[in-house]
Amino acid sequence: MHDPLTEMLRGLRLDGVEYGRCQPSHPFATGFPAKEEAHFHFLAMGHAFLQAPDGHWIEMQAGDAVLLPRGDAHVLASEPGLPPVPVGAMPRKTVCDGIIDLQCPCAEKRNTLFFAEMRFNIDKRHPLLQMMPAVIETRDLAASEPTIPPLLDAMMREVDMDRVGAGGILARLADVLTATLIRTWVEHGCGDSSGWLAAVRHPDVGRVLAAIHLNPAHDWSVEALAREMGASRSGFAQRFADAVGETPARYVARMRMQQAHQWLRDGQRVALVAERLGYESEASFSRAFKRIVGTSPSQARSPGRASLAAAPLAATPLAAAE
Q: Domain range for residue 296?
């Protein structure tokens, strides 16, 4: 039987929004803006530095990959301190299988970077994503997860994209590697001494949190959650608040609005989201959403997600490597 955290990971999915390759010549510096999607970078050849969101520089060698799970702004450069060129200002063309090629001036094959934008099926305010470091490095986790080096080796073999279907294979490898990094971080790198993760690993409270996160749109009552724990209503409420730091009702409300925020970002109409969450009117939903999220539903809503690459590949479950 899986523990509650494993059950949550089974419900967590990602799909690729855009994949790309560039072969810059020294000196280079490319700025990537903050986005809702996660950023993934794989250095197939050459040498580079990544400026993390907190400003410090991470040296990357050929075969290294990094994941920025919350999509924070960052810079990739041949050396620290160079003025970055915004990635959006660089011309691009389709290479193959939904992969774009950034047109770097004086491109040279000896510096080859592969990057991707990944969209999770949860809001970036989700406790699991908020707990993650701004940058997850493969070199930090490879010793704990034996599948990471073979995945990196497979990406190295495909990155030239000279073989039929190489672009699509490379994109899928990036999806699987990203899922593996997150699972490995959860299992080996995130600690378990306090906070939300400790609550998830609590033998009783964890079952309740897993139920909420696997079905956040459900209108959970305190009585229903107490039944999940197998406790009385009053006993459950106190144990939950002690472990999580807020009341069950407050936590459920936040998770429901995170789900609403995700639906709105995916382009769903405000009225439809209100109906899916069981609100009697759009106005009452809008008031609740603004009270919890801090913005109105119309401000959170996106008209769609057109990618600069081809259509996204199939979603990858974060427990896919099990």
A: 195-300
